[in-house]
Specification:
mainly alpha
Length: 109
């Protein structure tokens, strides 16, 4: 097998998933976590963040709000259970209730 040489111009172009500013935000969040000043929740009113993963998530969230290049959040995982077809609700007829005449004539005193 002959080894192929890559010239500097023939490099594979890699598209970055996250921008530089995003990694800076995550880095600063990690430092704040280490210091003990990174807080949970809006306005930092929650308790201290101890989890590494949560610190990363907070950093990415801050970067996202500042407009940095960050992929969108993944949605919640859907349950594996099959959804019901809705036969139960469609079999029942919705009948309108009749209004009683008593309440409408209560103003005659």
């Amino acid at each position: 097998m002959a080894a192929r040489k890559r010239s500097s111009s023939g490099r594979k172009k890699s598209t970055r998933k996250y921008g530089k500013s995003a990694s800076k935000r995550v880095g600063s969040a990690m430092h704040r976590r280490k210091k003990g000043t990174l807080k949970r929740g809006r306005g930092g009113k929650g308790g201290k963040v101890k989890s590494r993963k949560q610190a990363i998530a907070i950093g990415l969230s801050e970067a996202r709000s500042k407009g940095a290049k960050v992929p969108r959040k993944r949605g919640a995982k859907k349950s594996t259970r099959k959804k019901s077809t809705g036969k139960k609700s469609s079999s029942r007829k919705k009948t309108g209730r009749k209004k009683s005449g008593r309440k409408s004539s209560s103003s005659s005193s």
